[in-house]
User: Which sequence fits this backbone?
């Protein structure tokens, strides 16, 4: 019984949510939400699907927050979803239909503002005709009342036709008007929604007028500007001028002065096929920085694994000698950098490596007498800095896994090697290293995959900077994931979700390749499959 | 071989051993210096009352707790709020992750059903693509949800936790399932004969017995969530709702030099709980990491 009530609540919520999403044009999400709800219903109502009840919370979350974003990323990568085209078609149409203008022949009034005594954010205008209107009107937010139907109470009209007071309202004092004119009064749409009255944008203090809808839609892809008489056509989701009263010799639609007209925003996003990929391949200004980011992404991960593993292994061997006293304590002490959350360590290092004031550069300049490297401004040193931070963050983990692996190598093979006269170096090269790599190889690949997308270190250290060129989102220390983040959310350049998603697909492919090789080389997939 | 050569050899071995011993000690101390230098430096900075990056010395000339006082009372940088947000979000995520995974692990361990094998492998594979990679789409999704249900939209902890929970199933379910398998089925059977339902068996019998693995998954999830930067940075914009991982960054971008001392105090307070947790549960983290699991 309880179960049925819970199901009913989930279903009611789903229907409400889907009903909200579909008119907005969020079709993919609506379908997935409905599918999840259907699965939950089936799990609880169909006897054969009983075990799936236990997965329903986890799977619902997995589908909505992992599977949907993955599908949506692929979809967005093939669209022009970016600043100017951020809405779905129905959403863009809603926004445009809400825009108003004041026609030259519109009825206009002079106005007096009143504020509600109950709700100080509620205003009303007393309107006295200037042109085109025949009688005074009281316009509240949402309603126009002819003046002779208004209950004035004990108040009377003065010689300008303005009431001395209104029941429930107080007149806004002249001194306060300027303060609220732009931010409040000019924003309010007074009167009937069909004949909205607003302050005139040209002479806001003197006039209010009856506004009309600026844009109408003769058909689905055509937009008509009622004010200028220009027709716009949706080209790849952007309303572009195609015809109007003024067209110049080159066929451009212009205003009365002959300036070409801009497109109308907001537009909506549409599937543009391979446009983003073509930009990535054909546009030199995008491809060049992208290739550099891509190479550094790989180099960063390779070097990080290499330096952390080298130091970790070296220390593991040093600490592995049985005659070292206090080995366990030292190992635990060396683990501390790994235990500090990375976001804190990176910020601390950012302070130590501050170019002018950090201790590292100050020591360099006082000891060597030269100014220290540009840890944040130089294309090369920023990379060295990141690798140094990575070394500090990562060597303890490598020390730990190498210690474990070293201890699992049986001692008698070293005895045998010594008997055969192998030197210490030979023993390391031909015995220790190969045996160790078999044991920790998968972990090294996992570490590579993790650092391939190590957003925390790269973003917090220097936000991927310094920039490669003034007009690109890519920086010298950017890796793919921070580059993606800049494209989508970086300030100043405008969001480009479509292109960012294209880069995300590149990341997908790389991660899938790494994972495939990891399974392939370690046979761990077979192990996993057997354990099921 | 004469006894004289034997003596020479063993002396040489002793000398090598001593050299090796001191050499090794030297190396270890160098490593310890590298590991602890930044930590000692910010401990010193946090106690230095002048508080700027520029004027700091290793031994603070006027030591005191001023930076800590400033940190906890600042309105510009609401550190206590960030810390609380981090703990709240991480704790809720950890508890729900444990619960959601335990349900799945129980079903995988105790039931045999069509699609079981494929479902397990799918859950394993999906975690290869965590939602930090699809951050753009995740942002757009949360934005859309927020238009209709603001408490799960952008700038809300609800939305953030949901995104974290999306990745809850995955390696955690596998870890738990292995542990669940080790609980003898005879326990279930006898309870079933006594008339207990699956739910009762799960909740009253299995759940208490698997507490160790629940703790492991909970701790892993807590530490991973606490250290997340990319998702929190994308979804939370106002400083009042931000987590520590995002808030602490504001010291750096706002006025690094002047606030170095206060930042150091914040870094220490923010790090200590996690350091204690990780050092006390070392082996879980290592085995957890060997499976490619969390730690940001």
Assistant:
């Amino acid at each position: 019984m309880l179960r049925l009530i819970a199901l009913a609540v989930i279903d009611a919520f789903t229907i409400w949510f889907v009903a909200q999403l579909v008119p907005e044009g969020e079709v993919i999400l609506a379908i997935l939400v409905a599918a999840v709800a259907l699965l939950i219903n089936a799990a609880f109502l169909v006897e054969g699907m009983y075990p799936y009840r236990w997965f329903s919370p986890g799977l619902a979350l997995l589908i909505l927050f992992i599977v949907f974003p993955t599908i949506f990323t692929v979809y967005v990568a093939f669209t022009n979803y970016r600043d100017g085209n951020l809405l779905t078609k129905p959403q863009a149409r809603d926004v445009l239909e809400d825009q108003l203008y004041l026609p030259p022949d519109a009825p206009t009034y002079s106005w007096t503002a009143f504020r509600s005594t109950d709700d100080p954010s509620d205003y009303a205008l007393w309107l006295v005709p200037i042109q085109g209107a025949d009688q005074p009107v009281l316009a509240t937010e949402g309603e126009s009342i002819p003046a002779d139907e208004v209950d004035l109470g004990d108040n009377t009209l003065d010689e300008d036709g303005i009431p001395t007071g209104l029941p429930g309202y107080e007149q806004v004092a002249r001194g306060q008007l300027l303060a609220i004119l732009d931010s409040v009064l000019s924003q309010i749409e007074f009167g009937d929604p069909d004949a909205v009255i607003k302050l005139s944008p040209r002479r806001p203090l003197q006039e209010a007028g009856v506004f009309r809808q600026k844009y109408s839609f003769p058909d689905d892809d055509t937009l008509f500007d009622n004010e200028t008489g220009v027709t716009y056509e949706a080209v790849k989701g952007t309303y572009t001028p195609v015809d109007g009263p003024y067209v110049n010799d080159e066929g451009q639609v212009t205003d009365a002065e002959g300036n070409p007209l801009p497109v109308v925003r907001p537009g909506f996003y549409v599937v543009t096929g391979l446009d983003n990929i073509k930009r990535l391949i054909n546009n030199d200004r995008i491809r060049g920085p992208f290739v550099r980011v891509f190479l550094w992404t790989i180099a960063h991960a390779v070097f990080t694994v290499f330096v952390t593993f080298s130091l970790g292994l070296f220390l593991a061997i040093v600490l592995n000698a049985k005659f070292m006293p206090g080995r366990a304590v030292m190992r635990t002490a060396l683990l501390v950098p790994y235990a500090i959350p990375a976001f804190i360590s990176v910020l601390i290092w950012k302070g130590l490596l501050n170019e002018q004031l950090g201790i590292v550069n100050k020591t360099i300049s006082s000891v060597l007498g030269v100014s220290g490297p540009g840890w944040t401004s130089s294309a090369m040193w920023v990379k060295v800095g990141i690798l140094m931070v990575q070394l500090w963050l990562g060597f303890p983990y490598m020390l730990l896994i190498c210690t474990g692996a070293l201890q699992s190598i049986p001692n008698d093979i070293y005895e045998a090697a010594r008997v055969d006269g192998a030197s210490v170096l030979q023993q390391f090269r031909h015995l220790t290293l190969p045996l160790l790599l078999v044991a920790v190889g998968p972990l090294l690949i996992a570490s590579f995959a993790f650092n391939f997308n190590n957003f925390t270190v790269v973003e917090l250290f220097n936000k991927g900077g310094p920039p490669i060129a003034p007009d690109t989102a890519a920086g010298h220390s950017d890796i793919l994931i921070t580059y993606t983040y800049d494209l989508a959310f970086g300030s100043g350049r405008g969001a480009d979700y479509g292109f960012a998603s294209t880069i995300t697909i590149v990341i997908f492919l790389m991660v899938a390749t790494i994972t495939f090789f990891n399974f392939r080389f370690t046979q761990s997939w077979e192990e996993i499959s057997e354990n099921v | 071989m004469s006894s004289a050569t034997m003596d020479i050899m063993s002396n040489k071995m002793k000398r090598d051993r001593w050299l090796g011993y001191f050499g090794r000690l030297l190396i270890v101390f160098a490593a310890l210096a590298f590991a602890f230098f930044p930590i000692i430096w910010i401990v010193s900075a946090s106690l230095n009352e002048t508080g700027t990056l520029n004027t700091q010395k290793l031994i603070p000339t006027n030591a005191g707790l001023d930076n800590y006082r400033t940190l906890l009372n600042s309105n510009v940088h609401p550190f206590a709020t960030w810390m609380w947000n981090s703990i709240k979000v991480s704790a809720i995520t950890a508890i729900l992750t444990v619960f959601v995974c335990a349900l799945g692990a129980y079903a995988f361990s105790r039931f045999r059903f069509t699609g079981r094998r494929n479902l397990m492998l799918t859950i394993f594979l999906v975690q290869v693509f965590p939602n930090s990679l699809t951050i753009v789409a995740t942002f757009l999704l949360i934005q859309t949800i927020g238009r209709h249900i603001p408490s799960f939209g952008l700038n809300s902890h609800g939305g953030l936790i949901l995104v974290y929970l999306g990745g809850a199933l995955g390696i955690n379910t596998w870890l738990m399932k292995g542990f669940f398998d080790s609980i003898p089925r005879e326990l279930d059977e006898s309870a079933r004969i006594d008339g207990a339902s699956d739910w009762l068996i799960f909740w009253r019998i299995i759940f208490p017995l698997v507490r160790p693995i629940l703790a492991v998954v909970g701790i892993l999830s807590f530490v991973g969530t606490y250290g997340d930067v990319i998702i929190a940075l994308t979804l939370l914009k106002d400083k009042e709702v931000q987590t520590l991982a995002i808030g602490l960054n504001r010291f750096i971008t706002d006025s690094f030099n002047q606030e170095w001392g206060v930042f150091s105090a914040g870094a220490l307070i923010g790090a200590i709980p996690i350091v204690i947790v990780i050092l006390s549960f070392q082996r879980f983290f290592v085995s957890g990491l060997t499976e490619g699991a969390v730690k940001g």
Notes: Chain A has 18 helices and 13 strands. The two ends of chain A are 34 Å apart (CA to CA). Chain A has a mean pLDDT of 89. Residues 282-531 of chain A form a domain with the MetI-like fold fold (CATH 1.10.3720.10).
